[in-house]
């Protein structure tokens, strides 16, 4: 594509993205930020909502986060995990609540089940490979497809287009969505991640999670964290067979396109990857 073509495409993407509803970040996040380091006040703010509190405790004690010490209360969770991690968990729970309020034909129960599976597997992969980002990988796993419910609420035929996207043998999922709507779920998800003030590396990973081969080939990206997070995400998606869960596709064409590069960057052979998958399944048990 020439420069003029890229400019026109970017203008189309920006215009279409601006027409998509982006759920605002709830006020409680700002209230927590205003607390500074007052852990007692933060715990008090979270504890006001019993349902959210219970959900946080459930996530914190999940095998996916690998905690050996069980957490029994919000104050304990805040002290044990710290403000940053608790806030990230809170954001994922509140985003789920916001997106569930959108009207669409999307099977939200299956969507969130698949997102939790990817998040759990991604976090576990990090621990198995001794990567110091299990919590960040969990957040990315939950957030990376958050643009899907937003587009499904905007376009009545989104589910059909998404299913066709995942059935493309070239693995170019975003291209199919863009050609139909002028926007794709990775771009919509990036806007949500930015509005919700997720860490910059997670925002970029959301934006590029269907452009992994391009990112891995880009020598100008000197910080390896983004590339590592994307590789972990792609491995997790493949392990849980995400294309089948989201789009009834019996083949993971995207993995067939990028899998070799992902494993090469991660220093894994095919046999290593099989061993890793077995270890993840053993660690997560029924959560896999």
TrEMBL record:
Chain ranges of the HDOD domain: 18-212
Residues in the signal sequence: none
PANTHER family: HDOD DOMAIN-CONTAINING PROTEIN (PTHR33525:SF6), PTHR33525
UniProt protein name: HDOD domain-containing protein
Origin species: Aliikangiella marina
């Amino acid at each position: 594509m020439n420069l003029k073509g890229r400019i026109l495409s970017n203008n189309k993407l920006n215009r279409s993205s601006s027409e998509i509803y982006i759920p605002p970040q709830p006020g409680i996040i700002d209230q927590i930020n205003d607390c500074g380091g007052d852990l007692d006040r933060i715990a008090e703010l979270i504890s006001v909502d019993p349902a959210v509190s219970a959900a946080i405790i459930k996530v914190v004690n999940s095998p996916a986060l690998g905690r050996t010490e069980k957490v029994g209360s919000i104050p304990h969770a805040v002290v044990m995990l710290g403000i940053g991690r608790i806030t990230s968990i809170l954001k994922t729970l509140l985003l789920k609540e916001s997106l569930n309020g959108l009207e669409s034909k999307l099977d939200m129960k299956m969507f969130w089940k698949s997102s939790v599976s990817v998040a759990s597997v991604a976090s576990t992969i990090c621990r198995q490979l001794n990567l110091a980002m299990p919590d960040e990988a969990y957040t990315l796993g939950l957030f990376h497809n958050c643009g899907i419910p937003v587009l499904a609420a905007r376009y009545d035929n989104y589910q059909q287009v998404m299913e066709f996207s995942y059935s493309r043998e070239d693995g170019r999922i975003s291209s199919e969505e863009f050609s139909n709507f002028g926007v794709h779920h990775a771009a919509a998800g990036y806007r949500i991640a930015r509005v919700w003030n997720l860490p910059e590396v997670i925002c970029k990973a959301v934006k590029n999670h269907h452009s992994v081969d391009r990112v891995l080939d880009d020598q100008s990206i000197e910080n390896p964290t983004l590339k590592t997070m994307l590789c972990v995400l792609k491995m997790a998606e493949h392990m849980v067979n995400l294309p089948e869960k989201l789009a009834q596709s019996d083949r993971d064409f995207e993995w067939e396109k990028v899998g070799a590069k992902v494993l090469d960057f991660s220093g894994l052979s095919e046999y290593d990857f099989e061993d890793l998958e077995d270890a993840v399944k053993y660690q997560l048990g029924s959560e896999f």
